[in-house]
Design goal:
Elements (H helix, E strand, L loop, with lengths): L1 E3 L8 E7 L3 H9 L7 E7 L6 E5 L2 E5 L1 H4 L2 E5 L5
Length: 80
């Protein structure tokens, strides 16, 4: 299942499949390592959902909601 990073619940993880957005936002995300193929894990979410904290490429990264809406992720299903 593919969904936006901004729609993730705490503890969900997946593989980034697409980064959208205008030039500045997209370039900024790429510079921070948010690229297709990277594994991402949602660690924390602020009370109103902005910002969120993710683990990507071995480090913690805070993203604004507008940035997280630009990232499409294939959700990894939990082992049953």
């Amino acid at each position: 299942m593919i969904k936006k990073l901004s729609e993730f619940s705490i503890g969900e993880q997946g593989i980034i499949v697409k980064v959208e957005g205008d030039g500045k936002i997209r370039r900024r995300l790429f510079d921070m390592g948010v690229t297709p193929g990277a594994q991402v894990y949602l660690r924390k979410k602020a009370p109103l959902g902005d910002p969120i904290e993710v683990t990507i490429r071995g480090y913690e990264l805070s993203l604004r909601k507008i940035e997280a809406e630009s990232v499409s992720v294939k959700v990894e299903e939990a082992d049953k």
